[in-house]
Specification:
Elements (H helix, E strand, L loop, with lengths): L3 H5 L7 E2 L2 H5 L15 E3 L4 H14 L3 E4 L16 E4 L6 E5 L4 E4 L5 H8 L4 E2 L12 H7 L6 H4 L6 E8 L4 E5 L10 H5 L7 E9 L1 E2 L3 E9 L2 H13 L6 E6 H11 L9 E9 L1 H17 L4 E4 L3 H12 L1 H4 L6 E4 L9 H15 L3 E6 L7 E5 L6 H18 L18 H4 L2 H14 L26 H4 L7
Parallel strand pairs: 2-4, 3-4
Antiparallel strand pairs: 1-2, 5-6, 6-10, 7-11, 8-9, 8-10, 12-14, 12-15, 13-14, 13-17, 16-18, 17-18
């Protein structure tokens, strides 16, 4: 019997996609260097249908990958050959929005910006703001613990998720956390957030909402070199100021953004710094004086302040579109996602420039400077023989530099397919084994997003059903 017949009994033909053109649309996510064709796409419309699909996969030992908008830049939502994709876009309801409690309960297919749009009438907003926030889904944000430009002040997705209802790969439905900010016991909500789809699928996510800032002060500063811009960031952070965001863009990224949206960025600069203060008017007024003095001491070529909300929106539109705008400069590019300590930011940028010249490849730099999260975009032409391999080699050297400096392989994009072979650069064999045992505790068959994160793919050890996941992973004992 064809295993897909079991799914056809649940999903009507228009929500059970098996045609070549239909499958082709799901072959890649945002990291288009990787391709894989699933055997089917199922499109559930309710939580019960998601649960049924996962239980069928568990019964048939059939690999599955959950997918929202497919914006992952690490290959995290790449399909699995001979597996299925569970597309979650139609689970797009905001189930509850409580302005008094400052929470929103949403399904995984809700778009990031839709949460703020629904909350803004109450003077509230959802803080995590990845560059793809107008199209990426909350389910994907949870899977990869997304950040964004304002994560310096507000933190990552994990800092704003209070509770999760999920179906594990075994088909078990679980609830972690609650609507309360006061939690006791093991933090399974935090554990699930950032699991890269290796545990199962989130069905409902309870999000924390925050009051919208009363006042914003957004400054552009142009610099002669990337290193100077990086040193300016170190000076701002070391001063004790906590801006809402600190971002850097280099010449190539500035050119691309200007061509795309005409953001009116400073010209004739090798790097541009965006610093945004936000909060009560009195606080921002005082911090502005401090910031102006710090920026003046960093000797920028040009400094410009957004005079109104329209100019602020234009500044952020240019920054948010930078990844896609770089497509105007090169037919192909790889987006990296390493992290370095802030005090070594200037050094890291200088070394990336040196590596770029040595490799003969252009690199456009766009990144969350406040927390050292680099996003170098390595430009190449995929039609040239060996170009992709050279770009990937340069990306690997940048990642190794980040780890050598005491940083991380990833800040928010995740390990996925792209960085899995570099995991031993950062973690010991014992640590990776622990991760695999923990994954196997939630997914004994290794069917949920298999082949991702771990070097060489998965090697899950089967565990006993009925055990607490931490006990199954050998992390706790009931004896």
């Amino acid at each position: 019997m064809d295993p897909l017949d079991r799914f056809r009994a649940v999903f009507p033909a228009e929500r059970m996609l098996t045609g070549p053109a239909q499958l082709g649309a799901y072959e890649s996510d945002g990291l288009t260097a990787f391709h894989a064709r699933p055997i089917a796409i199922v499109v559930p419309e309710t939580q019960d249908e998601v649960i049924t699909a996962v239980r069928l996969c568990n019964e048939l030992a059939l690999p599955f990958v959950a997918r929202g908008s497919g914006t992952s830049l690490s290959g995290g939502s790449l399909p699995v050959e001979n597996g299925i994709v569970i597309a979650l876009n139609r689970l797009n309801r905001i189930l509850r929005l409580d302005a008094r409690e400052r929470i929103a309960v949403v399904e995984p297919g809700v778009i990031n910006t839709q949460v703020t749009t629904a909350a803004e009438q109450y003077g509230l907003h959802y803080a995590p703001d990845p560059s793809s926030q107008t199209i990426c889904t909350i389910g994907g944000n949870v899977a990869f613990n997304s950040g964004g430009a304002h994560c310096l002040k507000y933190g990552m997705t994990s800092n704003h998720v209070l509770g999760i209802k999920a179906v594990l790969a075994t088909g078990e439905v679980v609830e972690f956390g609650s609507a309360s900010r006061e939690q006791i016991g093991a933090d399974f909500t935090g554990l699930f957030t950032g699991n890269e789809g290796l545990f199962g699928i989130a069905l409902e996510i309870t999000l924390q909402l925050l009051p919208r800032a009363e006042c914003f002060h957004t400054v552009l500063a142009g610099y002669r070199t990337l290193e100077e811009a990086g040193n300016a960031v170190s000076a701002v952070v070391a001063s004790g100021l906590l801006p809402g965001a600190i971002e850097i863009m280099d010449t190539l990224a500035i050119q691309a953004a200007e061509a795309a949206v005409h953001a009116n960025y400073p010209r004739d600069c090798d790097a541009m710094l965006i610093v945004e203060l936000e909060g009560p008017r009195e606080k921002v007024a005082a911090e502005r004086v401090h910031l102006d003095a710090l920026l003046a001491a960093s000797q920028p070529v040009e400094t410009r302040v957004a005079r109104n909300s329209a100019e602020r929106a234009a500044i952020w539109k240019g920054r948010k579109c930078a990844f896609s705008a770089v497509g105007r400069l090169s037919p192909d590019f790889i987006v990296q996602d390493g992290v370095v300590p802030r005090q070594r930011l200037g050094e890291a940028l200088r070394r990336i420039g040196e590596m770029s010249r040595a490799a003969g490849l252009r690199v456009a730099n766009v990144f969350h400077a406040g927390d050292g999260n680099l996003h170098p975009l390595i430009l190449y032409n995929g039609r040239e023989t060996g170009a992709l391999a050279r770009a990937e080699e340069l990306a690997g050297r940048i990642l190794r530099m980040c780890v050598e400096m005491g940083g991380s392989l990833t800040g928010e994009h995740g390990i996925g397919m792209e960085k899995r072979e570099y995991l031993p650069e950062m973690f010991s064999a014992a640590e990776i084994d622990l991760m695999q045992r923990l994954r196997a505790a939630f997914d004994p068959l290794g069917i949920s997003n298999p082949g991702k994160m771990f070097p060489g793919g998965d090697a899950p050890a089967l565990v006993q059903h009925g055990l607490h996941p931490l006990e199954a992973a050998g992390l706790i004992s009931r004896e």
